[in-house]
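FYI - complex with MU-OXO-diiron, inputs then prediction.
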Amino acid sequence: MPAIEIKKDIYWVGVIDWNLKNFHGYALAHQGTTYNAYLVLDNKVTLFDTVPEKFKWELFHQIQSLIDIGDIDYIVANHLEMDHSGALPFIMDKANPEKLFCSVMGEKSLKAHFHPSDWPLEAVKDGREISLGKRTVNFIETRMLHWPDSMFSYIPNDKLLISSDAFGQNIANSNIFDDQHDLDSLIREARHYFTNIILPYSPLVLKLLDRVQEAGLELDMIAPDHGMIWRSHPDKILAAYKEFASQKLRPKAVLVYDTMWSSTEKMIRAVADALISEGIEVRVMSLKSHHHSDVMGEFSDAAALVCGSPTHNNSMMPLMADFLTYMKGLKPKNRIGAALGSYGWSGEAPSAMSRILEDAGFDLPQKPLRLQYVPGHEQLAVCKELGRALAQAIKAKVAS
Ligand code: FEO
């Protein structure tokens, strides 16, 4: 894909990874993503970020289509994760720049990744400004959004924020601007991305958004390292991030389960019926059909999570253990949980799931529910009772 001018003398020189399905541990909602890099043609020609190692020649050709790569004066590494730094050693070798800028934490990260002996590395503190000639660049440290090394680069002259992973989405498309897509779909992709990558750092996001507001940064364009560039709706993605990070909840429950002979599935369906009749929106998601990251995408704005698993070898089913480990690591806040499942002779799964939910900070208004073998009409009525009680707890949670 050819380089694209996004502002006068500022070019997108990224690559599109059309067929990517699994993005460092989570399944993409749709296939593919982009790795965005940006080249600023000024007195000091500056490259912001690179791409994965396997795309190093494509980045090279992108740059060569505009300038000779040896004309690069500065490289800025906003984030050292390999999807943005894998090609860095190759580009450093070809460009031989005067300076390589990264954050203070980035210096440590960069050295631990690449063990460079003679790179002209300069660590920049939060607020540091450098001149490119006609423009300046201000560096904004965004530590733990989502790695220790992460930072933003802000170019006030162009009102352009190069925002690393923040505000990104996993979309592979040759139309690289927000206004070339349906806005609601873009925000939905941004939410999926946020939930699976940035959710644990929500308090830091809220502080950063406050800082951006207090500093009065004028933002005409936000250029993330993945997905579409926000040139028409930077205000919308900022507002969406505030909502995502606030973890504002809706009267919605995600019922996630695995089942062996369909008994647990029957229990889950009965709970779902009761929730629906009480006016709660539900998503019923089998872990055999949905990747754990897609369940989290749905759970991002839901007040409650209902987990179902039969007892298997004195514990829960492996897919449920996988999901709960992943979910707990993302640290969702202020949620309601419930656990249930069928069993044959020992019945440990619901209690085991409840303990994990409790450890993760969930409120558990109902005791874990276990039913032996196949639930009949009376047992399903017990499940519906649980669903009705959960609905009241959800309504109270959303109202609080
Ligand atoms: Fe897109 Fe944290 O890397």
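Residues 253-393 form a domain with the Rossmann fold fold (CATH 3.40.50.360). The pocket of MU-OXO-diiron is lined by residues 79, 81, 83-84, 146-147, 165, 225-226 (CB under 6 Å).
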